[in-house]
Amino acid sequence: MTVVPQPKKRLGQHFLVDENILGVIGRLAALEPQDVVLEVGPGIGVLTRYLADRVAVVHAIELDRSLEEPLRSALEGRDNVRLVLGDALVLDLASLEPAPTKLVANLPYNIATPLVLDSLDGIPSLERWCVMVQREVAQRFFAMPRTKAYGAVSVLVQLQTHKVGFHAVPPTVFKPRPRVESALVAFERLEGSSLQQIRPVVNAAFAHRRKTLANSLALFGLASRADAEQALAAIGKPPGARAEELEPADFVALADALR
C-alpha cells in the first residue's frame, strides 16, 4: 500500500489518489503520443505516471521539495519525466525544452487562476489545457456576460481559448477531501491577438464592479472618465455601461479606442 505524504494546507495541496478519474483526464486532454505535457503540482505522481505512459515528455513542476523523494520513487523507470523543483508562478515555463504543447494538471487551489492566466500569453506553445480546479473557478473561466461569475478572468480566458470539455469531480478522488466541489475543464487556444494591451483595460474595468465602467477606469488611473465615455461611445456602448455588460470582444475594441 502506497504511503501518501501529509498534504500541506498552506500550499493548497489535495493529492489525486483515485485512479478512476485518469481516463476522464486522458479523454479531455486528448492525449497523443507526440504530446509534450506540462504538469504543475504532480503531488505523489498518480497523474504523472499516467501521462508519462502516454505522451513523449512530461515536465512536472513541484514546489514542495519534501515530495521529491516519493515522486522520484513513484516515477522510477519513466525517463520521459522531467521533474523541476520550484515555483511555477516564478519559473520561466516558456523556456522548457521541448516546449510544452498541453497543460494537464490537478492544480493547487491557491495558484489555479493566476497560473492559467499567466500561461495564456506566457507559454505560447500551449495548444490545449485540461485542468482540475475548484468548480466555481472552472465556471468562472467560461461565464457569460451579465452573470455574477463573469469577470476579468472570464474575459481573458475566452479571448484566447474556447471550452471543449467539462466534468464534475467528487471530493472522494482527493486526499484530503476538499470541502468544495471540483471540476475538470478543458479548453483549446484560439487564434487571436496578445492580451498584453487588453489585460490592463480588463483588470481596470472590473476593479470596481459596482461602478460604471468609465468610473472604474478613472479610479484605476487608466483613463479619465470623459476619455473612457468617449471610447465607449466609439464602440457603440452607452456612457453608463458596466463591465459585466460587455462581451469579451468588446474589450478588444475598447482597448483600441482608448489608445
Overall shape: it is elongated
Return the CATH class of the largest domain: Alpha Beta
In CATH, the homologous superfamily of the largest domain goes by the name: Vaccinia Virus protein VP39
Order of helices and strands: EHEHEHEEHEHHEEEHHHH
Integer-rounded radius of gyration: 20 Å
Q: Topology, pairings included?
A:
Elements: E1 15-16, H1 22-29, E2 36-40, H2 46-52, E3 57-62, H3 68-74, E4 81-85, E5 102-106, H4 112-122, E6 128-134, H5 135-141, H6 152-160, E7 161-169, E8 174-175, E9 182-189, H7 199-205, H8 213-220, H9 225-234, H10 248-258
Parallel strand pairs: 2-3, 2-5, 3-4, 5-6
Antiparallel strand pairs: 1-8, 6-9, 7-9
Helix pairs in contact: 4-6, 8-9, 9-10
